[in-house]
Request: fold
Amino acid sequence: AINDVLSYGNHYQWGRPADGHEISVWNGDAPITGRGFDDATPSLANGDTPGHSKFILTNVTPYDWRSGNNDNRWATANQGPCPAGYHVPTDAQWATADTYGAWNNNTNTYNSALKLPSTGRRDRVSGLLNFQGTLGNYWSSTVFSTNAHFLYFNITAASTSNGNRAEGMTVRCLKN
Reply:
C-alpha cells in the first residue's frame, strides 16, 4: 500500500554509505513511530565515512552531515548504498521518470511501474521520522550548490527539488 511502513525502506543522509545510520526500524505498522532517537549525534563527520552508525544532526549551514563538502560522494564506483551494477539515479533520470509517468501526486507515483510509496523523511535537526504515508523523498546523485537534488511528491504534486544533505531520505537504486 502507498502507506505501508514495511515498504518505506531506509532513510539515508545524502552521500553517506550504508553504515547503520539509515536503518528505519518500525514499531508495528504505525507510520510515524520507529527507531529510537538515542542513535543520533550532533558531531559532524570529518570525512566520507563517519566511523559510527549514528544519524548526524545539524542546524548549521550548509546543513550537511559532513564538515567540508565532497560533491562526489555518490558519483563513485560503489554508488553508496547501491549494489554493484546499480547507481543512485541522477536528477535528470528522476525528472524523466516524473515526466514519462505523468506523476501529479503520491497516488500516481505509487500506481506507477516503480511502485514508489510515500516514505517521508528523517529530520536533520531532530532526527525524527516524519511525513510517512503522505509524501515521498527519494535522493538523486546530483548536487546543487551545497544541497542535493531529490524526487519529491505528496497528495497534490510531484517534482524534483533540492534539499539539505543532512536530511534522511530514501534511495531507489537504478540498474546501470
